[in-house]
Amino acid sequence: MPGDLSEALKEATKEVHEQAESTEFMKNFQRGQVSLQEFKMVLTSLYYIYSALEEEIERNKDHPAYIPVYFPAELHRKTALQEDLEYFYGPLWREEISCPESTQKYVNRLHYVGQHEPELLVAHAYTRYLGDLSGGQVLKKIAQKALHLPNTGEGLEFFTFEGVSNATKFKQLYRSRMNSIEMDPATKKRVLEEAKRAFLLNIQVFDELQKLVSQCHENGHPAQHKPELRTRGTSGAHEHGPAPVKEGEKTLMKHTGMLPSTPLVRWILVVSFLVTTVAVGLFAM
Ligand code: HEM
User: Fold this and answer.
1) What is the per-residue burial (b if ≥16 Cβ within 10 Å, else e) of 223-239?
2) What is the CA(114)–ligand 1 centre distance, in A?
């Protein structure tokens, strides 16, 4: 195990990082195959995750095992995620979202660590923030292009670190701060294990989102968190970027969207149409 915590973390999480990159959800995302609904689902999960992470960071900001890596102005994402959710769901976004099971599991672990084993919190901060400053920047460009989001940054605040002008330099600073945390070998080993666990929790979040997406597509509905999720434009939400409408959904719209759903009403309309046609025919004669 390398001496520096930063080196040790990178080495210990190499395999799980590759696993995270190659989840179906992430692979699709990298190919630009991400719909608006899927993007909203990821943002929602991230909102719950960062709310828990940052609540525990605030609780432990004076803990010797966290102080050196406490960078709220530069890193914290909760406010950015709130802005993105308001952009996509509208002002009532809080009522529109709910926490999926795997995300809740991650949230529970974050609270447990923050309240019972705060010396491990750095593993969670490392996994998320250094990831967001690395691969996250590529994902931002992909999402912007795939969802036709404005290049002024609306809807992408999560990926935008206003307080970090140079991500590479900031990551170097962060690594050196991690290395300055005083830690005995046994604790260091636990931190490495916790970082692997954090990656696995992320993988479970992605796998669950993928499952929800697939289920919704099988049912012929766009993927949504809550069955009652509002449709386009009913309360000022910015439903930007044409969410790719799948062929099945188009057919569904063609067949169900154009005719009234009650058979009796449909029958009356057909009869009226026939009577009118005959009447017009007789009149023309
Ligand atoms: C499509 C998915 C992903 C891509 C393309 C990606 C890409 C990358 C790249 C290129 C780096 C290296 C940057 C550098 O050395 O400066 C990196 C680092 C990192 N990524 Fe990812 N990543 C992905 C997913 C994830 C996920 C899901 C997590 C965890 C939740 C994560 C966490 C990290 C961390 C912690 C680092 C910093 C490693 C270190 O320097 O110690 N990544 N990622």
Assistant:
1) bbbeeebbeeeeeebeb
2) 23
Distance, CA 85 to ligand 1 centroid (Å)?
Answer: 24
Closest C-alpha residue for ligand 1 atom 43: 135
Query: Residue-wise pLDDT tens for the chain (285 aa)?
Result: 778 999 999 999 999 999 999 999 999 999 999 999 999 999 999 999 999 999 999 999 999 999 999 999 999 999 999 999 999 999 999 999 999 999 999 999 999 999 999 999 999 999 999 999 998 889 999 999 999 999 889 999 999 999 999 999 999 999 999 999 999 999 999 999 999 999 999 999 999 999 998 887 777 665 544 433 333 333 445 554 333 333 333 322 222 223 333 444 455 555 565 666 555 555 555
> Do 208 and 100 touch, CB atoms closer than 8 A?
yes
Assign 280 to helix, strand or coil.
Answer: helix
**DSSP state at residue 210:** H
> What does pTM read for this prediction?
0.81
> How many other C-beta atoms lie within 10 A of the C-beta of residue 240?
16
3-state helix, strand, coil in the chain (%, to 5): 70, 0, 30
Alpha helices in 66-184 (DSSP H): 72-75, 78-89, 93-96, 101-116, 121-125, 131-133, 135-146, 167-179
Ligand 1 neighbours, Cβ below 6 Å, are 9-10, 17, 20-21, 26, 30, 126-128, 130-131, 134-135, 138, 199, 202
Whose Cα sits closest to atom 38 in ligand 1? 10
Determine which residue's CA is closest to atom 4 belonging to ligand 1: 135
Radius of gyration of the chain (CA): 25
